[in-house]
Every structure is written in C-alpha cells, then in structure tokens.
Input
Amino acid sequence: MKSSYAMKELPEDERPREKLVSNGAGSLSNPELLAILLRTGKKGLSAIELSRRILCEDRNGLAYLGRCRVDELVKIDGIGKAKACQLLAALELGKRMDKLTGTKKVDVHSPKDVANRYMSELRFLDREVFKVLYLNTKNEILRDENISVGSLNASIVHPREVFKPAIVYSSNAVILMHNHPSGNPSPSQEDIQITKRLSEAGDLIGIKVLDHIVIGDGDYYSLKENGLF
Output
C-alpha cells in the first residue's frame, strides 16, 4: 500500500486548490493553505504532509512560522531556499495587509488601538524591535520607524535617534513601542528607565511621549495606563 499520495491523485474535492476555488480560502486548514504555497512535497511526502511536518516543528504551530528566518526553514527536510522564501513572503504580505488603511491616516485613541494595529507585525519576532510612532495634532499616525533591534538599553535607544524623525515629520507627539519575544509584555526596569528618559527629553523639545506599549503574544502592556511614567 502506498504511504503517501500526490495531490493530483486525491479526489478533486480534497485537493487544496480546488477546495479554495469552490469554497474560498477560509474553508482550508492551515496545512492545506501551506500546501498551496509549497506546490510540491518531497519524495515520499505530499505537499500537505510536508506542510503538517512544518507545523509540527514547534509546539506553537503556525505561530512558529511567524518567527522563522530563511536559514531556519531550510533546515527542515524538504524545504529549500525557494520554498522558504515563498512561505515568508506570504506571511509578510499578510502582515502588511493587516496594516493597510488606504489613503486615510490612522488615528489612535487608546493603547488598545495601537496594540491591535501592530500586534501581527511584532508578536512573533524573535528579537526585540523598538518602534516609534510619530503623530500629528489629531493623534493620526504620520509615520512609524524602527529605531533599534536587540535587547533594549540606554545606549541603543538614544533620544537623538527617537526625536530626529519627529522633527523631520513635524510631529506633535510620539508613542514608543517594542515587543517581548518571550510573549510576556510586562516591562523590565530597563524599559521603565528608558521611557522616563525619553519622556523627559521630549518635554525639553516640546514633543510629548504619550505612551510606551510593550507587545507580547496576543497581549500588551501600556506603561502610561499603569502609571509607570
């Protein structure tokens, strides 16, 4: 008995592409969606079986892919550089779609607004990324900038790097934000100290720091809401 089948050997209504055409992408399982991106499997494994193997690489399943780099994916038997790039490109498009707003500027009224907008971008990263949102007088986001990558410390999150873009964009205020790869958004003492330092620098030049939001895995922490600066 054969241990695996090519997708073209499956009944037509069980093939991922045909199911997508007939019933929409939402009807497909995660392995089926991945199989469409991979297109082919490897010797002895169909594309769907290879997809299941990828999702079983880590207990976080699909979330695991959100943290992967090309060099990590190609270590999986059956995944070459081309397949790895296809998967990561699709994931990146999903993140960018989540942030699309058309021509309208995004206005923020609460930490939850900010967390909802940037959660998909930051929650699965394997390194800390310190991002700054630059706002106009209506609390609309003019731009956002990644200021540093790596564990936060005062030497790499310097007021000059944070507020130089604010002056260029004629910002009225900024919101600080970074992620915790551990998934726990509780701020460290270093996070609190950096926030106070940047808030004091902003007061000196007339650009207010409205908040510092830490993104975890599906959760967030607002230092302003919790009275930490």
Remarks:
- Residues 1-5 have pLDDT under 50 and may be disordered.
- The first strand starts at residue 129 and ends at 135.
- Residues 136 and 172 are 5 Å apart (CA to CA).
